[in-house]
Design brief:
With 108 residues, this protein is an alpha+beta fold. It contains 1 helix and 5 strands.
Length: 108
């Protein structure tokens, strides 16, 4: 018998994504950015929830054709996993990213 799937909220953190800064597009400059995001998943346990959320986010980043910054490998790590009673009114799996600039380095 398969275990019952729980409801999980997974917060992820990632980085080394190259985003073009809107005010620097004319000069073709990019900045290294990190991000935070949250995904809702159904999984049998905490570890599986984290793994599923990472797979979802990596697929979304690939679909948006975001490039790694300066040949550094993109990373996505699990920050927090919380078991929920349900997803309530929240649409699963969730979506969106909050990007922030990493450091002060800008390359052309």
């Amino acid at each position: 018998m398969t275990p019952a799937l729980g409801y999980w909220r997974v917060t992820l953190h990632g980085g080394f994504i190259a985003l073009r800064e809107p005010w620097l597009v004319f000069f073709g400059r990019r900045r290294s950015c990190g991000f935070y995001t949250t995904r809702l998943v159904r999984a049998a346990n905490r570890a599986s929830a984290g793994e599923q959320a990472i797979v979802l986010v990596e697929a979304e980043l690939a679909a948006q054709q975001l490039e790694p910054f300066d040949d550094r490998p993109l990373f996505v790590d699990v920050e927090n996993v919380v078991e929920l009673e349900s997803f309530g009114d929240s649409p699963a799996p969730g979506g969106g990213f909050t990007f922030y600039p990493e450091g002060r380095q800008v390359i052309s």
